[in-house]
Amino acid sequence: MGDSNGLWFNGVEYLNSTKQTSVSVGEAKSKKIAIVGGGMSVLMTSLLLTSVGMTNWHITESTERIGGRVRTRCLNDSKPDNYQYQEMRPIRFPVAVKYTDSNETLDIQDPKLVFQLSDVLNGMNGNDIEPAVNVILASYASAVQARSVAALSEEDHVALVQEAMVEVHGEIANEQWAGAYDRQCWEVDEHQAGAWASVAVGQQELFIPAYHKSELNTIFIGDHTSITHAWIFFALESAVRGTTQLLLELGLVDEVKKVVDTWMARWITI
Ligand SMILES: Cc1cc2nc3c(=O)[nH]c(=O)nc-3n(C[C@H](O)[C@H](O)[C@H](O)COP(=O)(O)OP(=O)(O)OC[C@H]3O[C@@H](n4cnc5c(N)ncnc54)[C@H](O)[C@@H]3O)c2cc1C
Fold this sequence. Notes:
One of its GO terms (molecular function) is L-amino-acid oxidase activity. This protein is an alpha+beta fold. The chain has helices spanning 11-17, 25-29, 40-51, 112-124, 143-150, 154-169, 172-175, 203-211, 232-249, 253-262, and strands spanning 2-3, 6-7, 33-36, 57-60, 72-74, 85-87, 96-99, 104-107. Residues 36-42, 60-63, 68-70, 89-93, 140, 186, 191-192, 195-196, 222-223, 230-233, 235 line the site of flavin-adenine dinucleotide.
């Protein structure tokens, strides 16, 4: 796995470092795997392990739900089919960029992993797909602004947002305000402590090599461990890399090839 800085993750070197000799495939596949957290990276990992015949895994999640930062909230205790829901999570999956000066459109490769996953999951569900509806409000504050509003009381925060709605849309925003809302401040969520990883200069070189090594039989995944961070496809990509790492440590090279070939692991060469 590499970028302009060179290789970050070298599968062959990794395999050699595990000093594997011969492997009992059955024994390796029956290993018990503990998976911590229930976000996209972890759910993807369980799917990848299952796809190569490893089913002895167990997920431990600290909240009462899975999905992590992928979070949809229904307003007023309504049900999803009332369509009063609000996305508190990823909503942008850019697929192409258009350069106006040259009129050239280039595909962005990474989000294709998200669409590949949704195709696979829809296939597993017999293509029983819920029709998508528009979100109620798709906007959030980040950085200093997010920290400031998180410090407000719930009442003040809601009033501030309502005031902004009137500023943008006019008095109709007051007339149509039904009073239903939800509030999610990621930084003060005890299970998250932030909305996404945003590394500063130098931190990438400092942290990534450490993330890509197992410590005490532990492998680190999650969007923050990816060479390009903070997006859902990098949470998924980290699952591909983490699963690769685990399978290599177990000596399951054919299974690694299957995962890498199937799941667009374009940075990993095995
Ligand atoms: C407001 C917002 C907007 C975003 N917009 C976009 C977007 O437009 N496009 C995009 O691609 N991405 C977007 N993202 C990023 C995307 O949501 C994340 O990259 C992705 O969901 C991260 O998945 P993950 O598995 O790495 O981590 P998480 O989803 O954070 O999963 C971690 C899980 O671990 C659990 N946990 C924590 N501590 C413990 C513990 N001690 N024991 C057990 N479990 C624990 C947590 O409860 C959580 O369920 C956005 C994120 C936010 C918050």
